[in-house]
Amino acid sequence: KNAVVCRLGGDEFLFYLPEVSEAEINMRVRKLFDSFRAAKDAAAETSPASLSCGLCMCRQGDNFEEYYIKADKALYYVKQNGKNNYRFYEELEEQ
């Protein structure tokens, strides 16, 4: 698939996967966390590092900035609630 990954600045990255289901994104993000955990545990200098992700399901043709803001809200929810996890914005709306 035509995934796009880019650095937004500092330690923030954008990961865009077109035309995938929430289940597939969950699977890919869990794999990303597993790979990250294995890499950071392999070296003492990276062992304190953590990975936090905010996710938002998008529809083609809608406003990118709106989705970016929603994903950022989900990211900050994760950072304020223990870090080293991920959350979909849609889950926050349900709470």
What's this entry about, in short?
The chain is α+β, with helices and mostly antiparallel strands and 95 residues long.
How are the strands ordered across the major sheet? Answer: 1-2
User: How many domains make up the 3D coordinates?
Assistant: 1
Q: Cα-atom Rg, whole angstroms?
A: 14 Å
Largest sheet composition: 2 strands, antiparallel
Helix percent band: 40-55%
Compute the average pLDDT.
Answer: 91
Total number of helices? 3
List keywords for this structure.
single chain; 95 residues; alpha+beta; two-stranded antiparallel ribbon; two-stranded parallel sheet; 3 helices; 4 strands; 45% helix; globular
Structural write-up:
This protein has one domain. The protein has helices at residues 22-41, 64-80, 89-94; strands spanning 4-9, 12-16, 53-55, 86-88. The longest helix has 20 residues, at 22-41. The chain has 3 helices and 4 strands. Strands 1-2 form a two-stranded antiparallel ribbon. Strands 3-4 form a two-stranded parallel ribbon. 45% of the residues lie in helices and 18% in strands. The chain has 95 residues and is an alpha+beta fold.
